[in-house]
Design brief:
By secondary structure, this protein is mostly beta strands. It has two domains: 124 residues, Immunoglobulin-like (Sandwich); 186 residues, RlpA-like domain (Barwin-like endoglucanases). It has three helices and 22 strands. Strands 3, 5, 6, 8, 9 and 10 form a six-stranded mixed beta sheet that branches. Strands 11-19-12-16-15-20 form a six-stranded mixed β-barrel. The two termini are 25 Å apart.
Length: 323
Protein backbone atom coordinates (compact mmCIF):
# COMPACT_ATOMS: atom_id res chain seq x y z
CA UNK A 1 0.00 0.00 0.00
CA UNK A 2 1.49 3.31 -1.06
CA UNK A 3 2.14 5.81 1.67
CA UNK A 4 2.79 9.47 1.14
CA UNK A 5 2.87 10.52 4.74
CA UNK A 6 6.52 11.59 4.85
CA UNK A 7 7.01 14.64 6.99
CA UNK A 8 9.36 17.20 5.52
CA UNK A 9 9.05 20.68 6.93
CA UNK A 10 10.95 23.31 4.92
CA UNK A 11 11.99 26.57 6.49
CA UNK A 12 13.45 29.19 4.17
CA UNK A 13 14.94 32.27 5.74
CA UNK A 14 17.13 34.95 4.24
CA UNK A 15 20.32 36.46 5.56
CA UNK A 16 19.32 38.82 8.36
CA UNK A 17 22.67 39.87 9.81
CA UNK A 18 26.13 39.71 8.30
CA UNK A 19 28.90 42.13 9.27
CA UNK A 20 32.43 41.87 7.91
CA UNK A 21 32.22 38.19 7.00
CA UNK A 22 34.60 37.98 4.03
CA UNK A 23 34.72 34.19 3.99
CA UNK A 24 31.12 33.75 2.74
CA UNK A 25 29.66 34.62 -0.61
CA UNK A 26 26.82 36.88 0.53
CA UNK A 27 25.36 36.91 -2.97
CA UNK A 28 23.75 33.60 -1.93
CA UNK A 29 21.42 33.84 1.04
CA UNK A 30 21.68 30.82 3.38
CA UNK A 31 18.63 28.56 3.29
CA UNK A 32 17.93 25.66 5.61
CA UNK A 33 15.73 22.63 5.08
CA UNK A 34 14.74 20.70 8.21
CA UNK A 35 14.15 16.97 7.74
CA UNK A 36 12.46 14.58 10.22
CA UNK A 37 10.89 17.51 12.01
CA UNK A 38 8.64 15.87 14.63
CA UNK A 39 5.03 16.94 15.08
CA UNK A 40 4.74 14.85 18.24
CA UNK A 41 7.40 13.93 20.77
CA UNK A 42 7.11 11.84 23.92
CA UNK A 43 8.70 12.81 27.22
CA UNK A 44 11.59 10.52 28.11
CA UNK A 45 12.02 9.17 24.56
CA UNK A 46 14.83 10.10 22.17
CA UNK A 47 14.22 11.92 18.93
CA UNK A 48 16.42 13.50 16.27
CA UNK A 49 16.49 16.55 14.04
CA UNK A 50 18.42 16.92 10.82
CA UNK A 51 18.75 19.54 8.13
CA UNK A 52 20.79 20.75 5.23
CA UNK A 53 21.90 23.98 3.62
CA UNK A 54 20.22 24.32 0.26
CA UNK A 55 21.97 27.27 -1.36
CA UNK A 56 25.66 26.87 -0.58
CA UNK A 57 28.30 25.11 1.48
CA UNK A 58 29.07 26.76 4.77
CA UNK A 59 32.67 27.98 4.64
CA UNK A 60 34.62 29.01 7.71
CA UNK A 61 37.15 27.93 10.34
CA UNK A 62 34.57 27.64 13.13
CA UNK A 63 30.99 26.79 12.12
CA UNK A 64 28.35 26.08 14.76
CA UNK A 65 24.64 25.37 14.89
CA UNK A 66 23.07 26.27 18.23
CA UNK A 67 19.79 24.50 19.05
CA UNK A 68 17.45 25.79 21.75
CA UNK A 69 14.16 24.06 22.55
CA UNK A 70 11.70 26.55 24.01
CA UNK A 71 8.42 26.22 25.88
CA UNK A 72 5.56 27.27 23.66
CA UNK A 73 3.67 29.09 26.42
CA UNK A 74 6.38 31.58 27.45
CA UNK A 75 9.41 31.05 25.17
CA UNK A 76 11.68 29.97 28.01
CA UNK A 77 14.49 27.61 27.07
CA UNK A 78 14.30 24.01 28.26
CA UNK A 79 17.30 22.51 26.45
CA UNK A 80 20.40 23.79 24.64
CA UNK A 81 22.74 21.88 22.36
CA UNK A 82 25.69 22.97 20.23
CA UNK A 83 26.91 21.27 17.07
CA UNK A 84 30.25 22.02 15.39
CA UNK A 85 30.49 21.57 11.62
CA UNK A 86 33.47 21.25 9.34
CA UNK A 87 34.07 23.83 6.62
CA UNK A 88 32.15 22.93 3.48
CA UNK A 89 29.38 21.16 5.38
CA UNK A 90 26.00 20.97 3.66
CA UNK A 91 24.04 19.11 6.35
CA UNK A 92 23.72 18.73 10.12
CA UNK A 93 22.03 16.38 12.61
CA UNK A 94 21.12 16.55 16.28
CA UNK A 95 20.58 13.00 17.54
CA UNK A 96 19.31 11.39 20.76
CA UNK A 97 17.54 14.51 21.99
CA UNK A 98 15.42 13.82 25.06
CA UNK A 99 13.01 16.02 27.02
CA UNK A 100 12.12 15.25 30.61
CA UNK A 101 10.67 17.02 33.62
CA UNK A 102 8.22 19.93 33.74
CA UNK A 103 7.76 20.80 30.06
CA UNK A 104 5.08 22.88 28.36
CA UNK A 105 2.53 20.84 26.35
CA UNK A 106 3.91 22.60 23.27
CA UNK A 107 7.53 23.36 22.36
CA UNK A 108 9.33 24.83 19.38
CA UNK A 109 12.87 24.59 18.01
CA UNK A 110 15.23 27.53 17.49
CA UNK A 111 18.40 27.26 15.39
CA UNK A 112 21.22 29.80 15.20
CA UNK A 113 24.04 29.64 12.66
CA UNK A 114 27.37 31.02 13.89
CA UNK A 115 30.41 31.23 11.57
CA UNK A 116 33.80 32.34 12.89
CA UNK A 117 32.16 33.95 15.91
CA UNK A 118 29.66 35.94 13.84
CA UNK A 119 25.90 35.47 14.08
CA UNK A 120 24.60 34.70 10.58
CA UNK A 121 20.94 33.72 10.89
CA UNK A 122 18.23 32.38 13.16
CA UNK A 123 15.25 30.18 12.27
CA UNK A 124 12.57 28.75 14.52
CA UNK A 125 9.40 26.67 14.34
CA UNK A 126 7.30 28.83 16.67
CA UNK A 127 4.57 29.21 14.03
CA UNK A 128 4.32 25.42 13.69
CA UNK A 129 5.11 24.03 17.16
CA UNK A 130 5.54 20.46 18.34
CA UNK A 131 3.11 18.75 20.70
CA UNK A 132 4.65 17.10 23.78
CA UNK A 133 2.93 13.94 24.98
CA UNK A 134 3.60 11.13 27.37
CA UNK A 135 2.68 7.51 27.93
CA UNK A 136 -0.58 7.00 29.80
CA UNK A 137 0.22 3.89 31.80
CA UNK A 138 -1.83 1.09 33.37
CA UNK A 139 -5.09 2.20 31.76
CA UNK A 140 -8.05 -0.16 32.09
CA UNK A 141 -9.32 -0.71 28.54
CA UNK A 142 -12.62 -2.08 27.35
CA UNK A 143 -14.03 -2.58 23.85
CA UNK A 144 -17.16 -1.46 21.99
CA UNK A 145 -18.81 -2.69 18.82
CA UNK A 146 -19.88 -0.93 15.64
CA UNK A 147 -23.32 -2.60 15.84
CA UNK A 148 -25.97 -2.84 18.52
CA UNK A 149 -27.03 -6.15 20.01
CA UNK A 150 -29.91 -6.19 17.50
CA UNK A 151 -27.53 -5.66 14.58
CA UNK A 152 -28.21 -1.98 13.94
CA UNK A 153 -25.17 0.15 12.95
CA UNK A 154 -24.18 2.52 15.74
CA UNK A 155 -23.69 6.23 15.18
CA UNK A 156 -20.72 7.80 16.96
CA UNK A 157 -20.28 11.23 18.53
CA UNK A 158 -19.54 13.18 15.36
CA UNK A 159 -22.46 11.71 13.39
CA UNK A 160 -20.26 9.05 11.82
CA UNK A 161 -21.11 5.35 11.70
CA UNK A 162 -18.42 3.17 13.23
CA UNK A 163 -18.99 0.51 10.56
CA UNK A 164 -17.65 3.00 7.99
CA UNK A 165 -14.48 3.79 9.94
CA UNK A 166 -11.10 2.15 10.26
CA UNK A 167 -11.78 -1.19 12.02
CA UNK A 168 -8.95 -0.21 14.36
CA UNK A 169 -10.75 2.61 16.15
CA UNK A 170 -10.87 3.90 19.73
CA UNK A 171 -12.68 6.33 22.01
CA UNK A 172 -11.30 8.71 24.62
CA UNK A 173 -13.26 10.93 27.03
CA UNK A 174 -12.93 14.25 25.23
CA UNK A 175 -15.55 15.78 22.95
CA UNK A 176 -15.28 18.78 20.68
CA UNK A 177 -17.72 21.68 21.10
CA UNK A 178 -17.69 21.63 24.88
CA UNK A 179 -16.02 24.15 27.17
CA UNK A 180 -16.10 25.33 30.77
CA UNK A 181 -17.57 28.65 31.93
CA UNK A 182 -17.18 29.40 35.65
CA UNK A 183 -16.78 25.70 36.33
CA UNK A 184 -19.90 24.67 34.37
CA UNK A 185 -19.63 22.45 31.30
CA UNK A 186 -21.31 24.16 28.34
CA UNK A 187 -22.22 22.51 25.03
CA UNK A 188 -22.12 24.64 21.90
CA UNK A 189 -25.30 24.47 19.85
CA UNK A 190 -23.60 23.50 16.58
CA UNK A 191 -21.32 20.86 15.15
CA UNK A 192 -18.32 21.58 12.98
CA UNK A 193 -15.26 19.72 11.79
CA UNK A 194 -13.75 17.82 14.70
CA UNK A 195 -10.27 18.83 15.81
CA UNK A 196 -9.47 15.38 17.20
CA UNK A 197 -11.31 12.83 15.07
CA UNK A 198 -8.97 10.48 13.15
CA UNK A 199 -5.98 11.14 15.44
CA UNK A 200 -3.73 8.12 15.99
CA UNK A 201 -2.56 6.46 19.19
CA UNK A 202 -0.10 3.69 19.90
CA UNK A 203 -1.37 1.04 22.33
CA UNK A 204 0.99 -1.33 24.12
CA UNK A 205 -0.23 -4.40 26.02
CA UNK A 206 2.51 -5.43 28.49
CA UNK A 207 0.97 -8.83 29.21
CA UNK A 208 1.25 -10.01 25.59
CA UNK A 209 4.05 -7.62 24.57
CA UNK A 210 2.00 -6.59 21.55
CA UNK A 211 1.50 -3.11 20.07
CA UNK A 212 -1.42 -1.87 17.98
CA UNK A 213 -2.34 1.46 16.39
CA UNK A 214 -5.83 2.92 16.12
CA UNK A 215 -7.74 6.07 15.11
CA UNK A 216 -9.98 8.24 17.27
CA UNK A 217 -13.57 7.77 16.08
CA UNK A 218 -15.82 8.17 19.14
CA UNK A 219 -15.97 9.61 22.66
CA UNK A 220 -15.88 7.54 25.84
CA UNK A 221 -15.88 5.37 27.75
CA UNK A 222 -18.26 6.84 30.30
CA UNK A 223 -17.82 10.61 30.50
CA UNK A 224 -17.18 12.82 27.49
CA UNK A 225 -15.02 15.64 28.82
CA UNK A 226 -11.84 14.65 30.69
CA UNK A 227 -9.09 16.72 28.98
CA UNK A 228 -6.93 16.74 32.10
CA UNK A 229 -6.41 13.02 31.58
CA UNK A 230 -6.51 12.80 27.77
CA UNK A 231 -4.00 15.60 27.10
CA UNK A 232 -1.94 15.31 30.27
CA UNK A 233 1.84 15.44 30.07
CA UNK A 234 2.11 14.16 33.66
CA UNK A 235 0.15 10.88 33.33
CA UNK A 236 -2.95 12.13 35.17
CA UNK A 237 -5.52 9.43 35.84
CA UNK A 238 -8.90 9.05 34.12
CA UNK A 239 -11.88 10.44 36.00
CA UNK A 240 -13.65 7.12 35.40
CA UNK A 241 -11.18 5.42 37.75
CA UNK A 242 -13.15 6.97 40.64
CA UNK A 243 -15.79 4.34 39.86
CA UNK A 244 -18.68 6.80 39.61
CA UNK A 245 -19.70 8.87 36.60
CA UNK A 246 -21.86 11.83 37.63
CA UNK A 247 -24.78 13.24 35.68
CA UNK A 248 -26.54 10.06 34.57
CA UNK A 249 -29.88 8.39 35.35
CA UNK A 250 -32.47 9.43 37.91
CA UNK A 251 -29.92 8.89 40.67
CA UNK A 252 -27.61 11.44 39.03
CA UNK A 253 -24.76 8.99 38.62
CA UNK A 254 -23.78 5.59 37.29
CA UNK A 255 -21.06 3.16 38.30
CA UNK A 256 -18.14 2.71 35.89
CA UNK A 257 -15.81 -0.19 35.18
CA UNK A 258 -12.95 2.32 35.67
CA UNK A 259 -11.93 2.12 31.99
CA UNK A 260 -10.11 5.12 30.56
CA UNK A 261 -9.92 3.85 26.98
CA UNK A 262 -12.37 2.07 24.67
CA UNK A 263 -11.09 0.19 21.63
CA UNK A 264 -12.62 -1.72 18.74
CA UNK A 265 -13.01 -5.52 18.78
CA UNK A 266 -10.34 -5.80 16.06
CA UNK A 267 -7.88 -3.80 18.17
CA UNK A 268 -8.70 -5.79 21.28
CA UNK A 269 -8.26 -9.11 19.50
CA UNK A 270 -4.96 -7.99 17.98
CA UNK A 271 -3.57 -7.05 21.39
CA UNK A 272 -4.90 -10.08 23.24
CA UNK A 273 -6.54 -13.11 21.64
CA UNK A 274 -8.52 -13.60 24.86
CA UNK A 275 -9.37 -9.90 25.18
CA UNK A 276 -12.93 -10.19 23.88
CA UNK A 277 -13.68 -12.94 26.39
CA UNK A 278 -12.04 -11.02 29.23
CA UNK A 279 -13.86 -7.79 28.35
CA UNK A 280 -11.05 -5.65 29.78
CA UNK A 281 -7.27 -5.46 29.55
CA UNK A 282 -4.68 -3.05 30.97
CA UNK A 283 -2.57 -1.12 28.48
CA UNK A 284 -0.29 1.86 28.00
CA UNK A 285 -1.09 4.37 25.25
CA UNK A 286 0.22 7.60 23.73
CA UNK A 287 -0.58 9.91 20.83
CA UNK A 288 1.49 9.41 17.68
CA UNK A 289 1.66 11.08 14.32
CA UNK A 290 0.68 9.21 11.16
CA UNK A 291 4.35 9.20 10.13
CA UNK A 292 5.09 7.09 13.21
CA UNK A 293 2.49 4.43 12.39
CA UNK A 294 4.12 1.30 10.94
CA UNK A 295 2.62 -1.01 8.35
CA UNK A 296 -0.09 -3.24 9.72
CA UNK A 297 -3.79 -4.10 9.46
CA UNK A 298 -4.67 -0.64 10.86
CA UNK A 299 -3.53 0.91 7.55
CA UNK A 300 -5.76 -1.20 5.32
CA UNK A 301 -8.72 1.21 5.68
CA UNK A 302 -7.80 4.60 7.08
CA UNK A 303 -10.53 6.93 8.32
CA UNK A 304 -10.17 10.19 6.45
CA UNK A 305 -7.21 12.50 6.81
CA UNK A 306 -5.69 13.30 10.16
CA UNK A 307 -6.88 16.80 11.02
CA UNK A 308 -4.71 19.80 11.83
CA UNK A 309 -5.83 19.23 15.38
CA UNK A 310 -6.28 21.74 18.14
CA UNK A 311 -6.79 20.73 21.75
CA UNK A 312 -7.32 22.59 24.98
CA UNK A 313 -4.22 23.99 26.65
CA UNK A 314 -5.06 23.53 30.31
CA UNK A 315 -2.40 26.02 31.40
CA UNK A 316 -3.81 28.98 29.49
CA UNK A 317 -7.39 27.93 28.62
CA UNK A 318 -6.63 28.63 24.99
CA UNK A 319 -6.30 26.33 22.02
CA UNK A 320 -2.95 24.82 21.15
CA UNK A 321 -2.01 23.21 17.86
CA UNK A 322 -0.82 19.62 17.63
CA UNK A 323 1.19 20.07 14.46
Amino acid sequence: MGRIFKIEFILIIFLIMLVGCSEMDISQNPQIQLINYPKLITLGENFSLSGEFLTQEMIGDNIKILLTIRNGNDGSGVLNQELSLSSGSQSFSFIDIRLEGDISPVVYFEFKLIIDGKFILKVDTEDSPTYVGNWHTDIITSYFNAYSSSGEPLKATWGNYLKDENPYYFALPYRDFYYYVDGELIKKDYYGVSDVKNRWIEIYHPLTNKTAYAQWEDVGPWNYYDPHYVFSTTNQRPYAEMGIDMGWSSQGYRFTNKAGLDISPATMEYLDSDGLAKGKIIVNWKFVDISQVPDGPWLERISGVEADSKVLNLNTNTLRTLN
